[in-house]
Structures
1.
Amino acid sequence: MDVLFNALPGAALAVVLLFLGTWESDRRTRRTEARKTAAADRAALEAQADEFVAAVMAVTTAGVVHDAMWGGWKTRAVVLIQALAQGVSAYAGAASGKAFSAANEAAHVVISEWDRGSAKSAQELAAPLARLGSAGAPLMRRQEPGLADAANEVVVSIRENYADAERISSSLSVFREALGSALEPPAPSRRRWFRRRGADQIVETSG
């Protein structure tokens, strides 16, 4: 009996050590999995941000091309000159009594062709705008401080005026700042900080 009672403390210690070992192993596994999950989430966020910026560039580029070809005052002036030239030519070559009608019809053809081309170009902006909306949607659901609002502001600024380079650039700067904060690795836990601080104090004391 004495032998059994003497063995109890050792057995209890072995159980405690086994429990602590299992608990520590499980804690490290959870911490490793948490780090992997966080790293995967940051990678996904970075990919979302890359697609978002690419979509922004696609919209602004398409908008610049549209404005250069159809929306600028120079383009409109050229169209008016062409319409006038066609009208004058038709007026000069028309039969008596039909000159004004022929001139009006010739000018109308030129302007109608421009209207159709401009409308088609405007419709082509729908695809990059849709891409921007799709790219911005997951970012607007993020919980990191300021990130969702920053992404929303970028989308709003482009949809309201894709030619407002100053506003778009400003909103993108805010977005980049929020993204940078969101992509930073998490700070070390408090326990690890205390462990390092204690080790530093030991070094200082021994020195």
2.
Amino acid sequence: MKTKKTESKKMVKVTEAGLLSLVAAKLKGKVLFTKKVEDAKNYLQKVKTVSV
């Protein structure tokens, strides 16, 4: 009787800076906190600017 064998993917060593740049590239242009962005846009529409 044969059992199923699963092979895991090989891991690579990446520096912290390299990992952060990979994550940043993956998330670039995506909105992570839609509710907070919406709240900020609403707040900024109501703000009155004053010239100094």
3.
Amino acid sequence: MTNVMSIQEQSKVIEVALSNGYINEYEEVMYMYNEESTGLCGVLTVIDQFGFASISEVLAEIEEQLFLSQEENNSGDEINIKETEPWNNGGVIVCKEGAFVWDSVVAEYVWCGQISRTVRRQMVRVLENVTLDHGFDEIQLTKGEEYFLEHQYVYYDEDNIPVIMFVMNKEDKAPIVLPFDKSVLTINNQDFAILNYPRK
């Protein structure tokens, strides 16, 4: 991967990206759908032509997905232990009736509010573990990490070859500027949501 930007150039690009504002008030949610072609599924983007699934459909699917793991007690007898696997790793899901979050104590979904609005962001996902030169520093990218794509532009290297540059941001971390390499990075859309929580 090419790296020919000076520290001053990188700082300027980062400053422009930050001036656009980092959308930290939006939450990552999973949107639930139930169509004949796919069955019940959860995705990270809103599908305009489909309506959200009902929470009752989600609960029915979870009941069907209860699995039994066989264990032996102290006497050597087999016992059945019921476990559930919530959608979105227990995070917020969006259904027809609103937003729900998994309550692990009672092992069920609890209504937590309504969506106020959504915003679509481009996310950069790291495909491989790599170490990149970044000025005087090295940047470690870990497979599976995701960053917000704040900005992208074309930079011409010392051989006048165009290079697509990404300005990437991650929560609680400073933005970084890196050349795009499709063997290391991939781009996906994700719809984040602002939720109206009920007053306590």
